[in-house]
Amino acid sequence: MLRAFQRVAPVLTLALALAPGLAGCASIAAARLYHRGTAALDAGAPERAIADLERAASLAPQASEVQNHLGLAYAAAGRPGDAERAFRRATRLDCDNAAARENLRAAELRSAEAKP
To answer: Residue 93: CB partners within 8 Å, gap ≥ 6?
Structure first.
């Protein structure tokens, strides 16, 4: 029983952190999709990560962490405009999200350097 709880506890904790205003099932689904999308991103599969993280974002639209990881997935997939927009949403949702602020700054820098 304890082992099963140890596997489920991180998902439940993440669900509570990601979407405190959502109904239980939606927040748990969003947390699972966030976790799965992050794992796909870590595995070098940005398109799979995008699919999961976009679904997580639709279930937990106020979750800054989801938007930040979605931005990372877009960047890894070569979609810099989408990445910048996702990082901007993440910082608007949570101005204390230091990772999202740094990712936005880096995306804006790359965008400025890419302009002739």
So the answer is: 62, 63, 64, 67
